[in-house]
Specification:
The protein is of the alpha/beta class and 311 residues long. Helix content is 32%, strand content 18%. Strands 3-2-1-6-9-8 form a 6-stranded mixed beta sheet. Strands 7-11-10 form a 3-stranded mixed beta sheet. The longest helix has 18 residues, at 273-290. 38% of the residues are buried. Residues 1-8 and 15-20 have low confidence and may be disordered.
Length: 311
């Protein structure tokens, strides 16, 4: 008797889903000022230097990419204009809100979200970071945490809200309040993660505690932290900081910077001359590598974003 193999019929919808499930890539969000589009371009060039097949998806507003020409836009494997609900809250423009929607904004099954105000360093490919985090469903940069079960809490532990008030208002009796840094978040498309990211978005829209105003909006890390407590979903490692940010790290030589970190952040309102020089030097290096005469250099956000002047 001949062996017969039954062929399995795959619908178009199933085939598309299979393709989605096989994808991984980087999500960048550039909204508002054109400086964010320029920084996204710089970051994309730096990422592709060591990972030329990397997929990079850019979510943007037209104003943010106004200074990119058609050739520069092609650095991104895909682009999509941000829906207004991603940055409008109660009729006000709050661009930071979009980060709470990164789960639905990402087209990938496995995503590394990066803030655009950083540059990838020269030693390690982002593929190595994907491999490092492969067995996880989610993680986020963080410094440390405090236990909410403690009788006494440092009310000033967080710059974004009074931790004691958070505990009382949300009636938390246990859990960890993390010092999260959302400039790098890794996640996979799972039902558990969808619930968690939906809670982040819900907390941003319906925050119950007083908060420190951040660029005319809610600091995204505060509702993220609250969602983490509600969902009991925390970073995989305490003190996980693959991105160097001068404001929280000790001074470091460039050789150490390159060997110990994946990327260099220029987040924050004000940059020192050293930060500007370091970032611009890396940008110049990558532009030389691709033979580009366009070099988008940086400056402190407070110099071009009026909403940062009151922070």
């Amino acid at each position: 008797m001949e062996n017969q193999t039954e062929e399995k019929t795959v619908t178009l919808e199933e085939a598309v889903q299979q393709v989605i499930n096989d994808t991984k890539g980087v999500l960048l969000i550039s909204l508002g000022h054109s400086e964010y589009g320029r920084m996204a371009y710089n970051l994309a060039v730096s990422l592709l230097n060591s990972a030329p097949d990397l997929k990079i998806h850019l979510v943007f507003t037209p104003s943010a990419i106004a200074h990119l020409n058609e050739g520069q836009k092609q650095i991104f494997s895909s682009m999509k204009e941000a829906p207004k609900e991603a940055y409008i809250r109660n009729g006000n423009v709050e661009y930071i809100k979009a980060k709470s929607m990164m789960y639905e904004l990402s087209p990938f099954d496995t995503t590394i979200f990066l803030d655009v105000d950083m540059i990838w360093l020269t030693k390690n490919s982002i593929n190595e970071l994907f491999e490092e985090l492969e067995g996880l469903n989610y993680t986020c940069q963080n410094e440390n945490n405090i236990e909410l079960s403690a009788d006494e809490l440092d009310e000033k532990y967080s710059q974004w809200a009074n931790v004691k008030e958070v505990k009382e208002v949300y009636e938390f009796t246990e859990g960890k309040f993390y010092s999260l840094h959302s400039e790098l978040i890794y996640f996979k498309k799972t039902e558990e993660n969808k619930h968690f990211f939906d809670e982040w978005k819900n907390q941003y829209e319906n925050l119950k505690v007083k908060y420190t105003d951040f660029a005319n909006g809610i600091p995204d890390e505060l509702p993220l932290c609250i969602a983490s407590i509600i969902c009991n979903k925390y970073p995989h490692e305490d003190g996980y900081l693959p991105v160097y940010w001068k404001n929280r790290e000790k001074p470091i030589e460039r050789s150490e910077l390159i060997s110990e970190f994946y990327a260099y952040s220029i987040g924050g309102n004000r940059l020192t001359s050293e930060q500007v020089q370091t970032y611009n030097d890396f940008v110049q290096y990558y532009m030389n590598k691709i033979g580009s005469r366009f070099v988008f250099k940086t400056e402190s956000k407070i110099s071009f974003l009026p909403e940062r002047k009151k922070l």
